């Protein structure tokens, strides 16, 4: 089956200096449209929820409604944190009080990551397709090294850990 998407133009960011890949790129064929979102872990039809199984001592910080953890595996940046709710909830189900706490926690996490030192900007990202717990990633961007300046840190992280580039300088 031919990939008619391969002829589509690539987005401009693949030409940005911070984009970590080079060479010939093309658009993959899209999957067929689905009437429902793919089930997340903890939802019917999804896998088991690792967050519900995890105990508080697996987290860097907890309170009654939130937990903060680091990646289980080595990260390609000095520190990387994930903030998640204790309960299964999506962004559109968050109460006003929880939303207010969320805003304050983002700022606290930014400051905690900045305190590590040699940190550039801190990025906050949210997709929400994996876990039933509302969660965000809070990631630093180092000032040096073009690979470390990539906004799509998930991609950059895989590159850095896989290749060891600049990780040894931490
Ligand atoms: Zn859960």
Task: Describe, in plain words, how this protein is organized in 3D.
This protein is α+β, with helices and mostly antiparallel strands. Residues 145-154 and 162-170 have low confidence and may be disordered. It is 20% helix and 15% strand. A 5-stranded antiparallel sheet has the order 1-2-3-5-4, covered by helices on one side. The radius of gyration is 18 Å and the shape is globular. It has a single domain, classed as 2-Layer Sandwich (HIT family, subunit A). The protein contains 3 helices and 5 strands, in the order H-E-E-E-H-E-E-H.
CA-based gyration radius = 18 Å
Ions, cofactors and other ligands present here are: zinc ion
CATH homologous superfamily heading: HIT-like
Strand content: 15-25%
The first-level CATH class is given as: Alpha Beta
Structural class comes to alpha+beta
What name does CATH use for the topology?
A: HIT family, subunit A
Tally of individual domains? 1
Strand runs, count? 5
Q: Uncertain runs with pLDDT below 50, 5 residues or more?
A: 145-154, 162-170
Largest sheet: 5 strands, antiparallel
- SSE topology string: HEEEHEEH
CATH architecture classification name? 2-Layer Sandwich
| Strand order in space, largest sheet | 1-2-3-5-4
Mean pLDDT, nearest integer?
82
Structure summary:
With 170 residues, the chain is an alpha+beta fold. The chain has helices at 50-53, 96-114, 153-163; strands spanning 61-62, 66-69, 81-88, 122-125, 133-140. It has a five-stranded antiparallel sheet, covered by helices on one side.
